[in-house]
Amino acid sequence: MIDLHTHSTASDGTYTPEQLIAYAHAKNLKAIALTDHDTIDGIIEAQKMAKKLDIEFIPGIELSIQWPTGEFHLLGLGLQTASDELKAAIEFLRQERDNRNQKMAEKLQEQGINITYDEVAEKAGTKTIGRPHFASLMIEKGFIKVRQQAFDKYFAKGRPCYVERTGLDLEAAVKAIKTSGGIPVQAHPLSMYVSWGKMEDKIIEIQSTGVEGLEAWHPGIRVAEAYRLEELAHKLGMIATAGSDFHGEKVRADRKIGYTAGKSKIEDRYWYDELKPKLKGKEFML
Asked: Does the pLDDT value for residue 286 go beyond 70?
């Protein structure tokens, strides 16, 4: 098994980068990508642990993209360095995330949830703070019982504490990844909420910006949809990848490292046949 989409405590996962690699090794994975949201802070730690345990490591990132429908995330897989463009992109997203978090904290207080952003930041212990960190503190303070309640009642679109996210321009994000030696891959394409009838044209439009791959296999979709996305990727001459989007069992118990759509094991071919031949295979260097 392999996994090309995972998260650590550097963003909103529950395992430290080192723990994540050790966990992947214990589960007999041969290769793993760390793709934290809008940050590369965990890469060096994960890379060192992967070397120690002799597991192939793919440095990555998951960037938030400004998009008119649904949600668009762009994976950067096989990063070799942090280019000036990538550093600028990360800083832009950090500032936007900070603004959003401040507004969410204010809205929570208006709802009688006595939580400050400073409290959330202190408890999170990471620079990349998001809604899951708010939810964890809300549980600790007794406002909710389980994390999903925070989203269902407060943070989901249309709920009282929802704040619109500002993402990167897609072309700027593609450039940031490519200048860092990585390959841009669209994460979970069905999150765009584009109908199948319009999907091919939309992917062609995205491909024209320099996106080279589609994450065809993701646990949030059905197996038939995954095969359909993989077929579309190959039809357009794109790479097809697969991931678990693993954050840790405490976040999403249904998402298991090394497993994807239909609870199926992630096949080695998505690394060895699809992605790896396109990469130069150098170590990540800051």
From this structure: no
Do residues 50 and 42 make contact, with C-beta atoms less than 8 angstroms apart? no
Cβ neighbors of 58 (< 8 A, separation 6 or more) are 4, 31, 32, 33, 34, 77, 78, 271, 275, 279
As a whole number of Å, the end-to-end CA separation of the chain is: 28
Per the listing, tokens 């491909």 go with 207
- The model's pLDDT over 258-278, given as tens digits with 9 standing for 90+, comes to 999 999 999 999 999 999 999
* HSE of 238, CA atoms in CB hemisphere, 13 A: 28
Question: What is the chain's alpha carbon radius of gyration, rounded to the nearest angstrom?
Answer: 18
Query: Is the Cβ–Cβ distance between 49 and 157 less than 8 Å?
Result: no
Predicted TM-score (pTM) of the model is 0.91
For residues 110-139, average pLDDT = 87
Q: What's the chain's average pLDDT?
A: 94
Residue 253 pLDDT > 90, yes or no?
no
Rounded Cα distance between 123 and 134, Å, is 9
34 phi, psi to nearest 5 deg: -100, 120
Task: List, for residues 144-169, the tens digit of each pLDDT value.
Answer: 998 889 999 999 888 999 998 899 99
- Edge-first strand order for the sheet with 213-217 is 2-3, 31-34, 56-65, 72-77, 183-187, 213-217, 239-242
Task: Tell me how far apart the alpha carbons of residues 52 and 47 are, in angstroms, rounded to a whole number.
Answer: 9
Give dist(CA 29, CA 133) in Å, integer.
28
Beta-strand pair 72-77/183-187: antiparallel
Q: What angle do CA 15, 135, 163 make, to 5 degrees?
A: 115
